[in-house]
Predict the structure.
Amino acid sequence: MSSVIVSDTGPLVALAVIDRLDLLNCLFDEVMVPEAVHFELLEGGAKQAGVAAYRQAHWIENKKLTEPNDPLLESVLDTGEASVIQLAREHNIDRVLIDERKGRQIAREIYGLQVIGSARVLVEAKRQGHLDNVEEAITAMRRHGYWLHENIVAVILKEAGER
């Protein structure tokens, strides 16, 4: 899965709370976040799970948008998701990492972006030998309060060969 990806906050937190943010570095040549996502993560401070791991991931590039987000896009998505789509468009990047359903749908259907989520990262990491067990990783994410729909979990575990 070698390429460039722009990430939203949720997947970074999901991977950071299980101490596997490194999987993104293993799977992608370059990982970018728009400033809005960067600040969203840092505003959580020490109380937000995963902030320390994010601060240590110096390979994640914080990028400033050259143009403001499309107001229509911001009217239906939060600033982080809108900024992810905007940054991907500005840099001609075709892949984004978003977990929230509405953001995924808009990125895919309106902007034609390839969308993956944190669960897909786990499957790809297992396929490439960077992760032993997807179910354990998902269980750990959930234990830390990260929500994934049962249907998604079932599909992912089947694809990972664990069901």
